[in-house]
Amino acid sequence: MADDFKYHIDHHSTLIRPAELGGGAEGLDEAIRAAVRAQRRLGLAAIGDGQFRRRNSLAPYYDQIEGFGVEADARGGVAELVGPLLAPEFRPLVGSPKARGRLVQDETAFLAGAIQRPLLVALPAPGFVAELSGANDADAAALAAIAHDEIEALAADGVAYVQLHNPLAGILVTRAGRERAKELGLEPDAILARLRAVDAKAIAGLDVPADFRVGLDLTTSGAGYVNQGYDTEAIAALLAGGPFARVHVEYPADEAGRFPLAELAPGTVVSLGVVDLSTTEPEDVDELVARVDQAARIVDIDDIAISTNGGFAAAPAAFTEAEQHAKLQLVEMTARYFWGNEL
Predict the structure, then answer these.
(1) Could you tell me which SUPFAM superfamilies the record lists for this protein (predicted)?
(2) Topology adopted by domain 19-342
């Protein structure tokens, strides 16, 4: 099945917050317009706002859902496993989750009026938030229901593409991540089963247009867990039934750390995180092209997209805006080698 989106140049929504914004909102709209213009020039088919309106990646849940307590100093095993870049805030559930309203309506309302392109919105996967906050089964199901309603509302707003970011799942399908989880007293397989169940509930029975898609983002922005490879049984358990039309994975230069693409269900569109955010140094385009060529021996080239290995907000390296632009240009250059004017 070819990628009917033609989203062969992909990204993860989060961009470097402009330094001149500081911690306030002054100039926020113009900063988002500038980010949109930059994405247009790079040929990105689906465009987001860089998440400049969010305090951090988890803020849509913490700020718009009742039931979370104050930020805790003792972060717990899951937060320790994913690290502060991927879990920038930790607030346990102390009551039943209840939405105060829409999670990210302020983002889409502005974007819909600012651009005439397909819109991209990334949300933390409800399974990730549930495990991070220590939710019981009932509360996890409530978070899934809130995410489900938000996804339907985003589709009604005109959003074409929603990414559910679940870095915890991405870590727990790696060998190194599973070992670290056990050291922290966690049970990888039990957590993966819960993650899959909660995230599947969030996308089950969506009332959305036929051309709307939800993707599962397993990337970690180069957090370092892929160096010992992946556990294929864990991947098979996570992706059983193929509920997601699109999956974002890490695909580094080191072959040992590449996501095993053969484990994906036929027809799944895979976004290859070939451009590394653990370093600001630009990669060699020829090497990136060769890596995608290798991937195309396993997955139909029309079911492949090119991306960074995660969002810039969670990058281990400290990027300037110019360095960020250079990394995104590498994504575009690599994609154009394969699809040219089809982008």
Answers:
(1) UROD/MetE-like (SSF51726)
(2) TIM Barrel (3.20.20)
